[in-house]
Amino acid sequence: MVNWAQMRDCWFGVDRVPELLERVERQDDDAEAWKELGWRLVLEHDLVSPAGFAALPRLVRLAPRSAQARGLAGRILERAAGRHGCDDLLAACDGTIAEFREVLDRHLRSRPADYLVSFRALLAVEEEYHWANVLEGFTDDINGVDCPHCGAGVTIAIGDFGCYSQMWEGGEEVRRDLRPADAGELTGTGRWMHRITVRDGQEALAHGIARLFGEAECPHCGSVFNVADEYTSANRPVLR
Predict the structure, then answer these.
(1) Most exposed of 20, 36, 81, 183 (fewest Cβ within 10 Å)?
(2) What's the pLDDT tens digit per position in 11-46?
(3) Bridge partners, residue 157, by sequence
(4) Residue 234: is its pLDDT beyond 70?
(5) Is 48 helix (H, G, I), strand (E, B) or coil?
(6) What is the DSSP letter of 85?
(7) HSE on the CB side for 48, CA within 13 Å?
């Protein structure tokens, strides 16, 4: 049983979250309650409250039938690697997180309208927090990495406008096409992400993942490096 008197939300309240949870449990289309619940449990980009982890089991119970619950539970877990001071609460959610994994996998197989939101939530469940927070669907994804050979900052673009590495030299833009990974050569997280999206018929995501886990040429020094390796090295959080 959760002692809500000890579970402050992002605005240091302890009474509103249980009331809001009861409202959305009664009526999933209560947009006002979902909106307030969201900003009480998750603040901005990196802060999740103790009440967020305390609410997670109830959100996951709603998740099979509620896009709002799936999205909010995912947002909470996307921030689980941050400095929230709630490691004990998070550890107590192991069973809930395992249940959420199964819910998300079944949901993704149905090729839903909220596929990207649920896929990001699944990445967070698998503790791939850096990908859960950066993946945008590959319509206009732009990320920065440093060339591991010369240290130059390189922009990686993957989207409808093209897939390339880019930088500016002497006032001029220099681009190099990305080299996508062959599906049969993918390993680890890249292989898993690609397999799931192919299974579910998500062509744009699968196309983007092949390039994200492929190779880029540095426009400055001409060396070739793996995009995902460099992004992961710079951005993957150290798990406690």
Answers:
(1) 183
(2) 889 899 999 999 999 999 999 999 999 999 997 666
(3) 142, 164
(4) yes
(5) strand
(6) S
(7) 23
**How would DSSP label each residue in 175-236?**
EEE-BPPPGGG--HHHHHHHHHHHHTT-HHHHHHHHHHTSEEE-TTT--EEEHHHHHHHHH-
Longest Cα pair distance anywhere in the chain, in angstroms?
63
Q: Most confidently modeled of 43-57, 126-140, 199-213?
A: 199-213
What is the DSSP annotation of 3-42?
-GGG---TTS-SSHHHHHHHHHHH-TT-HHHHHHHHHHHE
The dihedrals phi and psi of 101, each to the nearest 5 degrees, come to -55, -45
In the DSSP assignment, the letter for residue 164 is E
d(CA 64, CA 16): 24
Rounded to 5°, the CA angle 204-209-214 comes to: 135
